[in-house]
Design brief:
Chain lengths: 264, 460
């Protein structure tokens, strides 16, 4: 008898609760854009924030709501953009993959150090101390703020200057923000001809502090057939829309501060 | 009972005996003088001279640009050599006016003629202080004409002359108070004229007996002015610490001294105000201590702003033989900052140059260990913060907690925590960095909000 009553009571409660659940789930149904989940699956999931959103989930939501372009993820690159484009029904326009590049060649052999900085081993703290660490006031400090900022371990400080491993770089751009000297820039991966100096001083001053620095001599500008390289504030800059990677400026540069086209 | 100190603080070795008894004397620069356009908090001044223009001592060569800004005064006679980027004391490259010094030091007309205070209105006093380019000479360099024009001028209860000089090594304010006691009191009277309800207090640490005696003699018979001796403790001369002692106010968060009825001015600034208002002499010279165990003849000098540090070092006998200069500090060892290039000019706020044969920071770094959580930093913090928690929050990149839970922006960067830390951890440096990052974030957010507001306004 007791068993029977228990069974009935439990069954009745089950039916009532079940009906309630069915009702509420129908009544309060939140419409989910299934595209959002699909887009999220295409994203790399690093949550690096390079797209400008709080993480991959936030970017997926923005893409699904069409407030962000399908190629917004710099890490996923062309592959991810194509897949997301398929989901969203938009043709993905993707540029070339960019990689971080440190515009300084001032290793310990070519430039000297100055001022005995001690304290937090971090470039940003070192800059705040007011000490001039290197003879060159523009170059890489080599304390590795970019190394800690990189989520992929693609940057290493070699002989006093940060060096990027392009195969590991996901072009998130976090290192460009971390560098207090503003030395790191994103460059197209196929364009290997790059100016590896940021010293804005005049030639003789640069010569005095670093044997590898750009002296702003304009030889490269005169050499270029495509009007692609110009000296601005005593440093050469390359316009990659025009540059054909012919390498003539590389040969002519007296201080060899331009990387050759075949550089790895 | 009147308290003579605040909660917390440390007592580092003073090292003041090196230069304490050496009277201030004037040093006239021999070489070219360099005047950075930004020697103060706020906007850099705008140059009003051109290349090859002749200039005189006391001439305004760059004008205040905006409300929080200050004039730059030429301290020598000669002609303008260039207006270009030069390395300044902070190690940065900055716009400077370079003047070729003719060694005559011909002053401007009307320089140094005495005028009486009674004939001047408050506006005239402020205008003269502004024209003289006076900034807070204790180190921060806040334009004095802005500080002395608060909205609630009638509610100011205390005008505190900061003669604490709690920084180890430095003695120039001590000497200034001994030598120019009457002038400082007169300068204070000028300031008190602006604040009719205020009482003038000259605050001096007890380790400067001669200065206290001189000031007490100078204030004899003056109403509304008294001398207050303070316990010898660092950072006694901090604005917040002084207000705690003199007015008994625990300084509220994110407020200015004027909002709690106090104005704090450095003794050197008070002297400069007296010269500017009563003698029409702008700020072209300041007291400065050259000291440390690496210098041959430590001493106190009246140095013209713009003089190269290397020149002053030479005047003080140069570096001792057999000693290598390991560290040069602009200011003292607690609040000062290290400099890597001695061919840079002095500024209005440069109160000292400490040259050391040994770098204690390097030693500290070599013996650094993990935090013991002993809490000694908390007991010495003059603001009542918890440095070890703040450092931890920053290490975990939790700036939100640093700012809002631990009130890390209230840090006055006195360095007491770093001094006391048995694990030799670089606490103050961490906080400087954290504050910098929070302020930058705030600036970025403000810029973003402004851009969005402009966009919304444009859409309408």
């Amino acid at each position: 008898m007791t068993i029977l009553i228990t069974t009935i009571v439990i069954t009745v409660i089950g039916i009532i609760v079940g009906a309630g659940l069915v009702f509420t789930s129908k009544k309060f149904y939140v419409e989910v854009d299934e595209r959002e989940a699909a887009v999220r699956a295409c994203l790399p999931g690093n949550n690096c924030g390079a797209c400008g959103y709080a993480g991959c989930d936030a970017l997926a939501a923005a893409i699904a709501q069409e407030t962000a372009p399908v190629n917004a993820c710099p890490v996923g690159g062309a592959a991810a953009a194509e897949k997301i484009g398929g989901i969203m029904g938009v043709a993905a326009e993707v540029g070339e993959k960019n990689v971080a590049f440190v515009r300084c060649k001032g290793t310990c052999d070519v430039t000297g150090t100055l001022g005995n900085y001690v304290g937090l081993q971090d470039c940003r703290s070192a800059v705040m101390s007011g000490l001039t660490l290197n003879d060159c006031g523009y170059g890489c400090l080599g304390l590795g703020s970019c190394v800690t900022a990189c989520p992929q371990g693609a940057i290493q400080v070699v002989n006093g200057v940060a060096v990027v491993d392009e195969s590991k770089c996901i072009s998130c751009g976090l290192c460009t923000k971390a560098c207090p000297k503003g030395l790191i820039e994103l460059k197209p991966i196929s364009k290997k001809v790059r100016v590896q100096c940021s010293n804005k001083d005049r030639g003789p001053q640069v010569k005095a502090v670093c044997s590898a620095g750009c002296i702003g001599c304009m030889l490269c500008t005169r050499q270029c057939e495509f009007d692609a390289i110009h000296v601005d504030q005593n440093v050469a800059h390359i316009d990659y829309e025009k540059c054909t990677q012919c390498g003539k400026c590389v040969e002519k540069c007296p201080v060899k501060v331009i990387t050759p086209p075949e550089a790895g | 009972m009147v308290k003579d100190t605040f909660r917390g603080g440390v007592h580092p070795r003073e090292h003041k005996s090196l230069s304490k008894e050496v009277p201030l004397r004037v040093y006239d620069a021999k070489g070219d003088m360099i005047f950075p356009l930004s020697q103060h908090i706020g906007k850099p001044a705008r140059p009003i001279v051109k290349k090859n223009d002749p200039v005189l001592v006391g001439q305004v060569i760059a004008e205040a640009d905006g409300f929080v800004s200050a004039n730059i005064i030429c301290s020598c006679s000669g002609k303008v050599k260039a207006i270009e980027k030069r390395r300044i004391i902070s190690g940065a490259l900055a716009d400077c006016i370079v003047v070729e010094n003719d060694g005559q030091f011909t002053p401007m007309e009307g320089f140094g003629t005495r005028e009486e205070l009674n004939g001047l209105t408050n506006e005239e006093i402020l205008a003269r202080i502004k024209a003289a380019g006076i900034v807070g000479m204790g180190g921060a360099g806040f334009p004095t004409h802005v500080k002395l024009a608060p909205k609630n001028a009638l509610d100011i209860e205390y005008v505190i002359v900061n003669g604490a000089e709690c920084e180890p090594y430095l003695t120039c304010d001590d000497q200034l108070m001994r030598l120019k006691a009457d002038e400082i009191v007169e300068g204070l009277e000028v300031v008190l004229k602006l604040f009719p309800a205020a009482e003038g207090v000259i605050a001096i640490e007890k380790n400067k007996k001669e200065a206290i005696a001189a000031m007490e003699k100078a204030v004899e018979g003056k109403r509304k002015i008294r001398v207050q001796s303070l316990k010898t403790k660092y950072p006694q001369g901090g604005e917040k610490s002084l207000i705690r002692v003199i007015a008994g106010i625990d300084f509220p968060r994110a407020m200015l001294p004027a909002e709690v009825g106090c104005i704090v001015i450095n003794a050197g600034t008070t002297y400069a105000i007296q010269r500017a208002v009563l003698y029409k002499e702008p700020l072209y010279m300041r007291g400065m201590t050259i000291t440390g165990d690496a210098i041959k003849e430590p001493g106190n000098y009246f140095v013209r702003t713009g003089t190269l540090l290397s020149e002053i070092i030479e005047e003080a006998g140069g570096i001792k033989e057999g000693v290598t200069l390991k560290k040069a500090l602009a200011g003292g060892p607690m609040m000062g900052f290290a400099i890597s290039n001695l061919d840079v000019p002095t500024q209005k706020v440069t109160n000292g140059l400490t040259l050391l044969a040994e770098d204690d920071a390097e030693k500290a770094e070599n013996t650094m260990t993990a935090c013991l959580h002993c809490g000694r930093c908390t007991t010495v913090c003059p603001v009542g913060l918890m440095p070890q928690m703040m450092a931890e929050a920053f290490e975990f990149n939790n700036l939100e907690r640093y700012e809002n839970k631990l009130y890390g922006l209230e840090c006055v960067e006195c360095g007491s925590c770093t001094y006391i830390c048995p694990s030799k951890r670089p606490l103050m440096q961490t906080f400087k960095r954290a504050k910098g990052e929070i302020m930058q974030k705030k600036r970025e957010e403000a810029a973003k909000a402004a851009a969005e507001a402009a966009k919304a306004g444009g859409a309408k």
